[in-house]
Amino acid sequence: MKNVTIVGLGLIGGSFALALKKTGLAEKLIGVDTNTNHQIEALELGIVDEIDNLKEAVLRSDLVVLAIPINAAQKVLPEILDYIPTETIVMDMGSTKAGICERVKNHPNRKNFVATHPIAGTENSGPKAAFAELFLNKVSIICDPEESAPSAVKKVKKIYQNLWTNVSMMTAEAHDEHIAYVSHLSHITSFALGQTVLNIEKNEKAIFDMAGSGFESTVRLAKSSPDMWTPIFIQNRENLLNAIDAYEEQIKNMRRMIEEANPENIHQYLSNTNDIRRILNKK
Amino acid sequence: MKNVTIVGLGLIGGSFALALKKTGLAEKLIGVDTNTNHQIEALELGIVDEIDNLKEAVLRSDLVVLAIPINAAQKVLPEILDYIPTETIVMDMGSTKAGICERVKNHPNRKNFVATHPIAGTENSGPKAAFAELFLNKVSIICDPEESAPSAVKKVKKIYQNLWTNVSMMTAEAHDEHIAYVSHLSHITSFALGQTVLNIEKNEKAIFDMAGSGFESTVRLAKSSPDMWTPIFIQNRENLLNAIDAYEEQIKNMRRMIEEANPENIHQYLSNTNDIRRILNKK
Fold first, then answer.
1. Residue A126 contacts by C-beta under 8 Å, 6 or more apart in sequence?
2. Does the keyword Transcription apply (chains A, B) (predicted)?
3. How far is CA B207 from the centre of its chain?
4. How many residue pairs bridge chain A and chain B with CB atoms within 8 Å of each other?
5. How confident is the model at residue A282 (pLDDT cuts 50, 70, 90)?
6. Which of B197, B214, B249 is facing A181, going by the closest CB pair?
7. Which of B198, B213, B277 sits opposite A223 (nearest CB)?
8. CA B255/CA A278 separation, integer angstroms
9. Contact check, Cβ <8 Å, A248/B255
10. Closest partner residue to B192 among A190, A223, A251, by Cβ?
11. Residue of chain B minimizing CA distance to A198
12. Which residue from B210, B213, B277 is facing A141, i.e. has the nearest CB?
């Protein structure tokens, strides 16, 4: 590709830009960001070659990548499709997919759009958090591929594969339902854990001195960006509430077992759950 | 020290033995374990120099280290104190401290015992999981130090410091109350999350293909040993139920906010919880 525009120069967009550079997939990276500090940082860090405004950038690009919070992406995508050149592809990288697909489903240029979700990230944000290897050996989902031009889907799939990212296809609805359990729910459990211990800390200043690597691991996602996660939680509300209900049920189960203090029951529950090891090792 | 006996050749005991060897703090490591496979593995891996039965080992040791599940430690400690040589120290490494201190509080040789909890571990278990660096830059708690001989406390503190482990002192009650929040609760949240997703997986085989590093981080502790964690949950039941109640309150808060879908409220909650970053970075 000659020109690629990255809209949103944070962790995800910045890392994608760096990976495209590293693999020689793009000749020139054009950055678009409403945050002036992020523009400057992205140039300084060599994430993009130049900064432009959205429309000018789109008009001279082969590929446009939306890596901004999902509410912003849903606002800007229909506008981009209004003036997108015939051969240009626009892809998003948001963590919910039904909303954005619904938003443009009747747009005459819907075929130029490919809905994707690379399942990769860290708890950090901004251009400084970006690194080229973020997508290595991760999975990216392409949703509702039949709504996009076959050549566009093929191209986006090939880009991900060139970044050593495995690609799966599914409907936007299936994506949002599944991701509620294996990503969005994890963020809920981490934020709730962080808030619980912060509340206790008000009276017990020394408590964090006792926090070990296990606590850090389970609470890590509570450092995640509120700008990114607020719209995700709201958009995927319906699936997420189901996931939270199922989770609360398990917390209640454990609470009851601990109250009853029956070692056989607790041991059995923990042993059953150890099965997660088998499944994660398969990946 | 000439001879050190390690009772329990798993992750914790094995790692402690390897660290004592690496730093030259012990001339000979004697292993005690009821599991014959663990005995053989520990010898093969060079974790201990020989295997012996408990009483013979204790009678010729300067230090005895209990690194077995807390219910087993509470059973064996009074017996060891019955025949422990005058100058020998016995320390435990269990994750709850009030129970074991209560168990031996009136024993005539209570002063030979030092109650400790090194806040270190991984989700793995057994001799093969052991590594010398486990305790490096971690924190170890010594509980109720005034109940032990001052020379014994001094010696145990010095050993931990030689392993580059920071030492804090507190009462067994304070330890158990705090650790419920920053360690035991994290295990509850992980096991509940693991169980929730395993239940969904029964119908949705592909769901784990979509699990990213965030899910793996929050669910990691669900791989932990049921033998170790069942007695911890039961022994620290009272504190842990309080911690679970506080946590359930936060899950309910998040659930309600998501149901109401007010972005300002959610954003505020997530931003407040980001404060965990400041605290963990201080460590």
1. A10, A11, A14, A38, A41
2. no
3. 32
4. 311
5. low
6. B197
7. B277
8. 30
9. yes
10. A251
11. B276
12. B210
HEC profile for chain A?
Answer: CCEEEEECCCHHHHHHHHHHHHCCCCCEEEEECCCHHHHHHHHHCCCCCEECCHHHHHHCCCEEEECCCHHHHHHHHHHHHHHCCCCCEEEECCCCCHHHHHHCCCCCCHHHEEEEEEECCCCCCCHHHCCHHHHCCCEEEEECHHHCCHHHHHHHHHHHHHCCCEEEEECHHHHHHHHHHHHHHHHHHHHHHHHHHHHHHCCCHHHHHHCCHHHHHHHHHHHCCHHHHHHHHHHCHHHHHHHHHHHHHHHHHHHHHHHHCCHHHHHHHHHHHCHHHHHHHHC
DSSP-based three-state secondary structure for A76:
helix
Per CATH, which fold does A175-282 belong to?
A: 6-phosphogluconate dehydrogenase C-terminal fold (1.10.3660)
Give the ipTM of the model, two decimals please: 0.90
Chain A residues with CB inside 8 Å of B253's CB?
192, 195
Q: Which chain A residues have a beta carbon less than 8 Å from that of B252?
A: 248
| Residues of B with Cβ-Cβ distance to A231 under 8 angstroms | 263
The alpha carbon of residue B169 is apart from the nearest alpha carbon of chain A, in Å, by: 11
> Which residues of B are less than 8 Å from A201 in CB distance?
279
Residue B75 backbone phi and psi in degrees, to 5: -75, -40
- Interface contact A189-B267, CB threshold 8 A: no
Q: Please give the Cα distance from A21 to A34 (Å, whole number).
A: 22
The CATH code of domain A3-170 reads 3.40.50.720
Q: Do A179 and B210 touch (CB under 8 A)?
A: yes
Alpha-carbon distance of A30 to B219, in angstroms, equals: 38
| Residue B13 CB contacts under 8 Å (≥ 6 apart), including other chains | B6, B7, B65, B67, B68, B93, B130
A207 to B263: CB separation less than 8 angstroms, yes or no: no
CB atoms within 10 A of CB B155: 17
DSSP letters, B235-249, are HTHHHHHHHHHHHHH
pLDDT at A267: 97
Tell me the per-residue pLDDT of A189-236, one tens digit each, with 9 for 90 and over.
999 999 999 999 887 777 888 888 899 999 999 999 999 999 999 999
Q: What are the residue ranges spanned by the domains of chain A?
A: 3-170, 175-282
Question: Chain-centre distance of CA A193, in angstroms?
Answer: 21
The predicted-structure confidence for A30-70, as pLDDT tens digits, reads as follows 999 999 999 999 999 999 999 999 999 999 999 999 999 99
Strands B3-7 and A166-170: unpaired
CA distance A95 to A240: 13
